Amino acid sequence: MLKVATSTSLTIQHSIEDLDQRIAARSPTTPDAELLKQVVGDGATWNGAAIVETASRRPLATLGPGLPVDLLPPTLTANTTYPVTTADGPALIRSVALDPVRTLLAAQPLDVDELRLSPTARQGVFVITPDGKSTLMQGVSAVDKVHLPVVFRGLAQSKSSEGLPIRVTEWPDKQLVLASAPVGETGVTLATLIVADEAGGTSTIQGVLTGLTLLAMAVPSFLLMRLALVGPVRSLLKQAKAHACGDVPPKRRLLLVAEGHRIARALALTSGDPSPSTAPRNRWRWRPTANQALALATVVALLWPMAAMAATLRAPEPSIPDQLVRDEETRAEAASTLMGKALNNGLQSVIRISQAAEAGDPTQMTPLLKQELDNHQRFRSLYLIDPNGSTVSSAGREPLRKEPLRGEAGIDLDGRTARVPVVYAFRVGANGVGVVGEFNIDYLLDMLRAVDGQARIVDQDLRTIFDSKGFRAFQALEGSARGAAAEALKGGTVGQAETPDGKPTLIAAAGLTKPNTVTPLKWSLVVEQDLAGLRLPASDGRRWTLLVAGAATGVVVLAQVWQYYVFARPLRRLAAEADRISDGSVEAPIPPQRHDDIGALAICLEICRQVRHTGSSRLGGATRLRGTENDPTAVLPEVPPRPEADPAAPSPGDPADHPDDRDDRG
After folding, report:
1. In which order are the strands placed within the sheet that holds 189-197?
2. 14-48: buried (b, 16+ CB within 10 Å) or exposed (e) per residue?
3. Do 110 and 127 form a contact (C-beta atoms < 8 A)?
4. Residue 229: phi, psi to the nearest 5?
5. Nearby residues of 133 by Cβ (< 8 Å), 6 or more positions away
């Protein structure tokens, strides 16, 4: 709706500029009747006009249908546009002061560009004037007329575009959707109403079941880690502590991992414990390693994420609703009309300057050119050239056009400038002097950037002229948008809901055919939407499933990598040390570098190794370090400092304090 409002605003702005300049350029001796004929013309833009006294508003001269003067405020302000609602529909009344006592009033019916509406959705387009009155312009009204003031409450003289759903009690599975946008600074608001079906997303029950399946696959992985790794290591630690204290464990539990069995065998050998675990027949019995158990737990934990991803990716992607395709076609058509009007307004400005140059001196047109550049930002450069192509007057930046003008008037694209697209409007007057206005690229791109999605303009060779997301001039258009652009060049508007290979997409293209002055360009405008930004309920469920599956995969991988470096690899290294001890090499010590169960196992194994290596001479004959984990920790009292010695007293090492006893040893 914002594009339609902007396009309508451009049309109104152009007609007002043309009216103001026509009145400003009139001769002071022009009769009132002749001036009204010039204003109304063929009635295509202004269908009625009147010259009234400013104070009393008494008509002095009229042409066309009567103006609704009674709907205007008591005091007429010069150069002001008044939107009103008449019996024939909404209209604009333009007030222009002719002199201190007379004012010209011109009436223009307020029209809206033809839109592609959805009859099944009961879509309608309304015009809301500042007095709060609404008029149905296109389509049908989805609600009764008596309810429209409530629906449109607060939209009169709105300053920003709005869009909101409205809940209707009588519609259990539908909602009324309202979208509105202001028409420039006129005080008029365009609004559209449409009845939309409610699409349910992922249900709560389905979400709960999905979460339960994720939990059901996480529990076996947790139990597998606990039974195959955590439990055996804790059981082995109890045995190791008993061996380190010189006790033989009365009962040995089954150790499920190979590393635990190897460490237990080394403990038994260093302790002199004859047990079946030291027998050669058990040495080669297969047992899973810690890495194998960790890998199996990882596979079990990843079953749900992988299954969820596979099921989601294998399922067909949700199709695009027909209403969205129709809305996209409307958006592309409105954007192409807006771009065409912007180019046409530039051409009309060039025509007015050319007419002024015909009536005056072309070399003295620089002030008028600068004024046009200051009033509007549509041109980057505006200049006059003589029949030989030499510049007569200019304003703005250095011209980029390189090719000669083709024809008498129109809009063209310079074919010799490859660095940037140079689009210009021109007119060659009867005196042979041409006026050229090169459009500002940023001015045109701002219109494309206001379109939702990626908007591109391509020529008949399907080369990119403008792109709202950044572009390289004259780059060939590729992808699914190429086919839509080629169809739009033939005329009309084209929408696509899927690619040739069946994947969903949302593309719409429209040819630049309005107004007729832009038709020779043979351009088309293509709008392509990012499906991720549409937030369809079915697409949201799909994206959330992939997101949760990816997050679960990341958590599992990070957790298992942490388990490998913190648990599995240190246990494997300790098992290698235990194999060395089992082979009879007890000279090298086992450094305990950890403060967990693996480190405690290493300390116990080191104690047993020392006993095996040094025997009873270790620690003054103590073969084991006895004690329990519950021994209290005692804090020793602080030792008091020694008193300072008397300086007069002899020191303990003084020779005078020890008589010579060499004679006694005689």
Report:
1. 134-139, 124-128, 189-197, 174-182, 162-166
2. bbbbbbeeebeeeeeeeebeebbeebbeeeebbbb
3. yes
4. -125, -55
5. 85
* 160-192 burial: b if 16+ Cβ within 10 Å, else e: eeeeeeeeeeeeeebbbbbbbbbbeebbbbbbb
Identity at 255, one-letter amino acid code: L
Helix (H), strand (E) at residue 366: helix 366-375
Q: What is the C-alpha separation between 578 and 262, in angstroms, rounded?
A: 6
Q: How far apart are the first and last CA of the chain?
A: 128
Residue 659: pLDDT band (50, 70, 90) is very low
- pLDDT at residue 439, as a whole number: 96
Contacts of residue 370, defined as CB under 8 A and 6 or more positions apart, other chains included, come to 395
Distance CA 340, CA 344 (A): 6
Kindly report the backbone phi and psi dihedral angles of residue 260, in degrees, each rounded to the nearest multiple of 5, phi listed first.
-65, -40
Can you tell me whether residue 551 is helix, strand or coil?
Answer: helix
Cα–Cα distance between 433 and 384 in angstroms, integer? Answer: 7
Question: Alpha-carbon distance 588 to 580, whole Å?
Answer: 9
Each residue of 237-263: pLDDT tens digit? 888 888 887 776 666 666 778 888 888
Cβ-based neighbour number of residue 79 at 10 Å? 11
Structure letter (DSSP) for residue 186: S
CA distances from 197 to 151, 162, 238, 272, 506 (A): 19, 20, 67, 81, 19
Task: Name the band, by pLDDT with cuts 50, 70 and 90, for residue 282.
Answer: very low
Is the Cα torsion angle 71, 73, 78, 79 positive or negative in sign? negative
